Amino acid sequence: MFTDAIEIAVAILGLGLVVLSVRQARAKGWAASLQMAAGGFLLMGASAIGIVGFIAGLVLSPVAWAGVIMLGIAGLLFSVGQKLEVPKGSAKPDAVGESGPAPKGAVDAGPKRGKKQQQSSTGDPELDDIEAILRRHGIQ
Description:
Among the domains are: 1-49; 50-86. It has 7 helices and no strands. The protein has helices at residues 2-23, 25-28, 30-49, 51-60, 62-84, 115-118, 125-136. It is elongated and about 95 Å long. The N and C termini lie far apart (83 Å). Keywords: Membrane, Transmembrane, Transmembrane helix. The chain crosses the membrane at residues 6-22, 34-56, 62-80.
């Protein structure tokens, strides 16, 4: 009921803009007059198809505002859940150089070697990288 009154008021405002644009066509020029008339027809059309009533119903409805608040809370909870989620099977990474307790069933890398022993005799940098990775995992 209240939204109907708002729709009628917006339609009357649009009609007033059209009438004003026709009256001031010579004073302001035809381009400005046509633009003002277009705005008036836009307001009348929006009232006629119910857009104004729909928007007024949303703005004036406490249930609609409760729904907006619930959607905001849902988005906030989802974002926080995404930030707190830790992938399964991954532990928090330790700082570089620190070694914490080895997980159960982990393979020991064996005794530490000197730099001369770690260098590969192949001379191929790709194979050296592969050998370094295998050594880190305890595979020789």
